[in-house]
Amino acid sequence: MTHEPFMEQSGWSSRSAGLRAWQTLRVNWYLGFTYFGGPAVNFKMFHKKFAEDLNWIDDQTYRELFSICQALSGPASTKMLYCINLLHSGTLGAVLAFALWCLPGAIGMFILAICVSSIGDALPSPVYALLSGLNAATVGIIALAAVDLSEKAISDKLTRIIVFLCASAGLLYNALWFFPALLVAGGMLTAGFDRLWKDDAETCDEREPLLYPDTDSQIHAPVPKQGFRFSWRKGAATITLFLASFLLVMAIRGFVPGLPLLYRLFSNLYLAGTIIFGGGPVVIPLLREYIVAEGWVSPRDFLIGLAIIQAFPGPNFNFAVFLGGLTAGNHGIPIAVGSFLAFVGIFTPGMVLVHGTMGVWSAIRGKAWVQSVIRGINAGAVGFIYPAVYRIWQVGYMDRDFQSGRSLGEDPWWVIVAATAYVGGRYFDVPAALAIILGGLMGLFSFPHVTKTLLAQHFKSCHLHQEAFLNEHQ
């Protein structure tokens, strides 16, 4: 069966632009207010909404988009939503969906930057308990999303191994080149495996996907009706123009002395948006390096924003809006200017790249080896979610004495909060938004218990030091 072209020419279909814009608005307007939990959870929700409920795309197309969005730099879940609306409603619909998705959280982070810029050096203790509860609930939600996506991505023993190895490697190393290299390796591994053993009937049976049992769907992916059409030449030109702009921005940054703060802020985030592979889980440590290490934002304010962004709907990349606003405010520049530049800098690279890639993808998506590569990239991308769980766990517990964050395992209450979010979502269909709110409330209710635990640990530590001192002087 021949493969229909994915996209061929730009422009809207015969239906009116106004009607398509209204449909995009009707379907997407509330997502930026209600989809909590970060990219891993958002992918799961997008599949249910657009592939299962609305039937805008089929499962095979969803898998392809998932692999593209994970393999390219930038905010993965935001690119996924953009691409789904691009296929169904064209460029204007995709841009509208992007704005509806990002702006609610971005405005919230801008307001948070205004608030944090005016607070003192220490927050009330109950606030730290609230933030810790939000972080603990987020850990449970992301862990649940990792398990659910693993069940969909694992189709045989090889993909199970890839998920495990990528998760393990992501825990041990965090170099910028590491994540895309592992994704490429995973894709090459499955492509080579399928090439060598494609005639093995037993292997073919074993590789039957868990989520996509219809093997024909792996060979022929129906093209969405009324989809946006885009040639590979225009896609390649879009990618080339972006790379030229990136080189220009970096050249000015590297060779022009005495650049103003706002340009350095924009260039740092433009660079971050270009080299971040793996989406939201990877952006946190990189933004810490490019903002906090520069001395523009304090570690405490960084962690406050980190805790709040976990409880915000929409993309985690909106965290850059908060950091950009604080950077500007701390240097006497209007916070709105810093937040706007940060928003443009962090989002532009990924969105332009994925738009161009959709055209190039149309020329190669029907190849058998491409489907094999997708299988490996899918598995590797899911594996990267597990290190995100660990990293938030390690810095999620905040109090007056540890404003830079420490492990949630310091107190068993936070383990209970994380487990409650996981069990509620897994077995009782508790929405992610409700689980996060419940986590914050459990954090507030735990304040007397946590304070008592900390005091007990403090007195025990003092007692041990006293005994050691007496033993030394006997």
TrEMBL record:
Pfam family, one: Chromate_transp
Signal sequence segment: none
GO cellular component, one term: plasma membrane
PANTHER family referenced in this protein's UniProt entry, alphabetically: CHROMATE ION TRANSPORTER (EUROFUNG) (PTHR33567)
Membrane topology of the entry: Multi-pass membrane protein
A single MF term (Gene Ontology): chromate transmembrane transporter activity
Keywords: Cell membrane, Membrane, Transmembrane, Transmembrane helix
Chain ranges passing through the membrane: 95-116, 128-149, 161-185, 235-256, 268-290, 302-323, 335-361, 373-393, 413-445
Name assigned to this protein: Chromate transporter-domain-containing protein
UniProt family annotation: Belongs to the chromate ion transporter (CHR) (TC 2.A.51) family.
Domain of life: Eukaryota
First-listed, main subcellular location of the protein, grouped into a coarse class: membrane
Organism: Stachybotrys elegans
Subcellular localization(s) per the UniProt record: Cell membrane
